[in-house]
Amino acid sequence: MALKEKTIDGMIWSSIGNIGAIVIQFLTNIVLARLISPDDFGCIAMLYIFISISNTFISSGLGSALVQSKEVKRIDYTTVFYYNLAVALLFVIILFLAAPAISRFYDIPLLTKVLRIQSLNLIILSFSMVPFIEMQRELRFKALNLRNLVAAISGAIVAIFMALKGYGVWSLVANGLVTGVVDVCLLWGLSNWKPTWEFSWDSFKRLFSFGGLLLISTLFETIYSNIQGLLIGRIYNKTTLGYYTQARKLEEVPSTTISKIVENVSFPVVAKIQDDKERVRFALQRQYQAVSFLNFPLIILLMVIARPLILLIFGAKWEPSVHYFQILCLSALIYNISTLSTSTVKALGKAKAYLIMQITKRTIGLVLVILGAQISVEGLMYGFVASSYISLLINMIVIRHFVNYRIRDYFLHLGPTLLAALLAALPTALIVFDNSWIHEALFTAITIPNWAIAIGATLLFSALYIGCSKILHISTLSLYKDILKSKLTGRKAEV
Known about the structure:
It is globular and about 70 Å long. The two termini are 15 Å apart. It has helices spanning 3-35, 38-46, 48-59, 62-68, 74-106, 111-118, 120-137, 141-164, 169-190, 201-235, 238-272, 277-304, 306-313, 321-347, 351-373, 377-403, 407-432, 437-443, 450-471, 475-489. By secondary structure, the chain is mostly helical. The chain is built from 20 helices and no strands. The longest helix is centred in the middle third of the chain and has 35 residues, at 201-235.
């Protein structure tokens, strides 16, 4: 199978696996949100930053170096495996000892036990990384994503059962642990790689020369991504953090789904053609267009139907999350474009440039978020949004330098898609928003259920978006039609 065909096939299977897993997690979250209080969600969110930083040392750095390397030997895999296992054990010990201090920081005694149990996820992750990377390098996306679905379903069943039995926050803890254990068992069963008693310092040094820089940059990224929860939990309270966390989870469903699909395929594929800058530039253009065609309308639609959607899926007790969700969507709008840019820089092997780029962006972001937090929760989130757009601008400049993808090319290739989404959103919003004159004229005398508003708005928006895409001659619409036809008829898609 040619690389282009493998890329299309990989994106389809990544779509099935990632969308399926995230849908399962999303549905699980809906059920848990009705069984568990915002306080319980807030408790778990307070610990995200500590678990995520620990995860960074395991999942970043050497793992990315393995994917990016043109050739990988067996000793490279075993070296990374034993490094990951040693780091995981170290951080489990650190978190076990630090748990009481962290619980005092938030003034919630329960967090000591929760953090100690959650830290076991680090050991699970250390066992999963190398077999995952080995299969990713072989472009075995079908097996990877089927295993993702099975793991997500297993965790969901256990979490919902425990929530129904009244275990509260422990249902959320169990979800992560069960999902991780099933994931590791399936990976080891599917992967051709098995560890041997080998470790090479030469291999470690070679991989760390690239991966070490990525580790530092990813560490900044992790702190930046999780600092909001720490600040809200410390400055405000766990209930507010629970509302914010639920809004963040809902916002991450579309942005993270699309990001995972594209990055899991794009990174290894671009790494294979990294020496041909013209092919990389063209591949990046097509990826930008393919991602934005889905991401722009989806995020804008979610902003429009935010209130009926949240009330429908989570219940009235989560209404304070509506405004938080709409603000976060402003960042999600360009999240996947930024992710593709940073992934491309990594795949090209530009570790130093990547490090400088990420540290610069996240330092600016941390300053804006911390300053915003002193004003209000909304101020914190607007700081986060502002830093997202500054980050995108920096990404554009770096990509321009390496693959000659100019800033005006973004407007040329992505502008029509954004315009089509905005044109579709305007009449939809006028009908959906409670304070619009059209909504008042149509629905003053009757009460429309939230599910009807959400479905009706989605259908209207989708029809308008497809119509505007045709009028504006957006080529990506034809690309998706060709891919769909190719899978239904068995012929090759034109890409």
